[in-house]
Amino acid sequence: MTMKALTGNHAVSEAVKLARVEVIAAYPITPQTTMVEKLAEMVDKGELEAKMIRVESEHSALAATLGAAAAGARAFTATSSHGLLYMHEVLWWTAGARIPVVMAVAARAIGPPWNIHVEHSDVMDQRDTGWIISVAQENQEAFDLTLQAFRISEDPRVYLPMIVTLDGFILSHTVAPVDIPSQEEVDNWLPPRRQPYVITPESNVVMGNIASDEDYFMMRYSIQAAMKAAKQVISEVDLEYGKAFGRSYGGLVECYRCDDADYVIVITGSWAGDAKKAADMLRDKGVRAGVARIRFVRPWPEEDLRDKLSNKKGVIVFDRSVSFGSYGQLFSDTAATLYGTKVSMRGVIAGLGGVDVRPDDIMSEVMDFVGRVEEVGLVYEPQRWMLPKKYAQVGKEVGL
Amino acid sequence: MYTELRFHGRGGQGAVTAATILARAALFEGKWAQAIPEFGAERRGAPVRVYARISDKPIQVHSTVVEPDIVVVLDYELLKLVDVTEGLKPEGIVVLNSPVNTSPFPKFRTFCVNATRIAKDLNLVVSGWPTVNTAMVGALAKASGVVSIDSVVKAISEYFSSPSLAKANSDAAVKAFEEITQC
Amino acid sequence: MPIRLADLPRRRYGMPGNAACPGCPETMGLRYVKMALGDNVVLVIPAGCSSVIQGIVPKSGINFPVLNIVFASAASSAAGMEAAFEMMGKNYNVVVWAGDGGTADIGFQSMSGAAERNDNIIYICVDNEAYMNTGIQRSGLTPYGAWTTTTYAGKTEKKKPLPFIMIAHNVPYVATASVGYPQDFIEKLRKAASIKGFKYIHLHAPCPIGWRFDPGLTAKIAQLAVQTGVFPLFEYENGKFRLSSYSGMYRNPQKRAPLAEYLKLQGRFQPVLKDPEKLKGLQEEIDAMWRWIEMLEKYGPQALK
Amino acid sequence: MPISYPAEGSSGKTGLWRTERPVVHLDKCIKCLFCWLYCPEDTILRREDDYVYVDYDYCKGCGICAQACPTHAIEMVPEPSLGSERA
Predict the structure, then answer these.
(1) What is the pLDDT at residue D86?
(2) Partners of B37 in the beta sheet?
(3) pLDDT value at residue A396
(4) What are the required cofactors (chain D) (predicted)?
(5) CATH number, domain C11-304, options 2.30.42.10, 3.40.50.2300, 3.40.50.970, 3.10.20.600
(6) A213-245 vs A81-97: helix axis angle to the nearest 10?
(7) Which residues numbered 219-258 in C keep a CB inside 8 Å of some CB on D?
């Protein structure tokens, strides 16, 4: 193992190389671009024995990745924002085909107006597609998740494609130390590719022709069953990875000081680190706070969260995205998970378009929530918008 | 030890590289570091900020640095455009690329070095611009002590694949390390 | 080398009991692909009639392994498959089988990209000149004046000259073919399979349902399209343009069968037969194609420069 | 898994779609094989001696074979209506 100071994007590229990916197809989009630039360089220099298809669009990027994977190759693509949205149709097709594929998403806001900074709307938009969706907090975790993604998606109990999300710029372009294992260590840990079928003249397999409504229904059911199985597989892989490389994260949810906490922050992505700092600060002020960091948005860690949160005084969910006309996506799922409990809940929409959210911002929102709970008892506030500082007054006026 | 830094430069001037080299140098010393570019729609010449953190322990925080311990200014002319000491802690320091040896910031400990001249002397000029970033990291090492000059030179040597560029940039860092003084 | 029917094996190339309409040109064409390339083929099929023709899971009525894929990116998926096979050292023919919509319109971007990258695939555009699978709507390849359900009074724009657009991509091989001339198509497929890089074959495929003719006439109408000069057969190979022998004699308009013979057999051309202005427009469309041919013959690859 | 394998009858016995059936008069057949070549369904079958016969299980009755035959050896004959011999 070697410590390297790498951007999140380059950390993922290193993992892709170590996984011995055979086909890569990608189209550049900020802030994903430097990831595939690095991969192209690795291929051109002969460091990675793979075919790089420099496609003309993201729609084609995933279609080509799927084609390669269906033909039996370990395949990878990466994108962001509008690119991910443009791919959306092919995401459904890939998951429905049950073909293991790994994709990195450098999460970014969606226009208009143009904004290249972090937000989770792009990846949240893919929740229903049948992809396993993981979110990293650190560059190291983006690297680790990428390696794990091949193992998880290629597990016969799963056979679903997987997204590794890393926050645009905040991880994708930030340089931080990343522990890189040797090729030999990775080869020992990551088995050769497995997949449910290959399409070749020998196999004579036809994928995707018309199915009866009943058969179609049952194929959908089988994806849900695979998602359920994936929870077990994710936890196993996390533990095995820990044994091999010394890093385990706690499976689908990372619990930071949440065991003895009265109030828990539910959050995902890089700003979970800031939330942990906020929890430390809150404890200094006498509030027993913790963080339940969602590592996997899909499959949703229902059991883990219920187990960890159902006896708390309050749960406050921070979403860096919103389902317009409804709530933050993490809030909706968390609220459904806590149905029937006596836990106070608040949903907070913050940090859209890369607006900086700092530990003290999170702390004061939690303090406000704690105050409300102490004052009135059971609180249910599904959405509050943490407006940018210079617009904070506007929020008060419109009563958000 | 926990130090937060902010770099001020212009688009194309290499502030991101400066922070990256700093982070790599810190890594050589067994420390944890972050180098965080702040990206916008800025193009070449526009003011840019880059943040960095160095710590004995792993760093979890990812928000931007608003109360830095150290501010590094790569371009003297930026002082006309940007309040570089905004949020700087009272005991904080400024590391300034300056043609003169006087501090414009009476409230802060300021260190001056003529990195532009050092870069020009070493022929470190790209597309007409002196590249002062490596010199400024060397100067920073002296002024703040967050990393050693040896680590900076090692990080620079590793960063540039061309041996001649690695040499010239290392020389710039060492020269700036030697020349910088409190002003 | 000319194809002798008696030499072709007695085996069943098609897959009977599929969901194609009676007289379907697509199942005809697919048989010819099998005759030409045998079993060493993987098909990539975007949305279209051919997705339906396969029939219902767990059987498929197309006698090939198939990756069915979304409408817009068949060429990219084929490129991906080919890349995987190349990594494995396998020499399979990856063949896209797409309709005019999947090629000229919604799929154009990905096809153009694959052509520009010179991906080693055979791309077959099965041109039935409208969106037949969704019920006969006009496409970029519907001829001028033709009725469709979205061009009630006849199409008011001309057919996109797709084979020439593909020649302009400067790929190693471009050909037109017709289900009316199977031997010619088979020969071209075999040639395409022997060339490395992007190969494009534009297959004219008269649709009895969409064109409004008796299903027994599919082959005849396809032949008439060639004999009237409506659909010339040609090849463009490594910068050399060549009119195919079946179309050679129709270079001279005097030698062509009268256009009306082709039109009057098809219900879709009623607007053209009724309106001399529309007939003129259709004739212009055909003439423009022959001017392309003349230019390419005269200047070869220089025509593109 | 959403997969299939090529097999006959993916849409059932499509011979039932027919309204007219091709009948081959072998006395006129010259073994040119045009009917076999153009049949979209592969339901014109070749005997060892290259005379042809029809797979009525799947033939959809399009009539391309009759049109392709230069000697008019294939005749399209209306199928008997339901309730008579076919039922």
Answers:
(1) 47
(2) B50
(3) 57
(4) [4Fe-4S] cluster
(5) 3.40.50.970
(6) 110
(7) 219-220
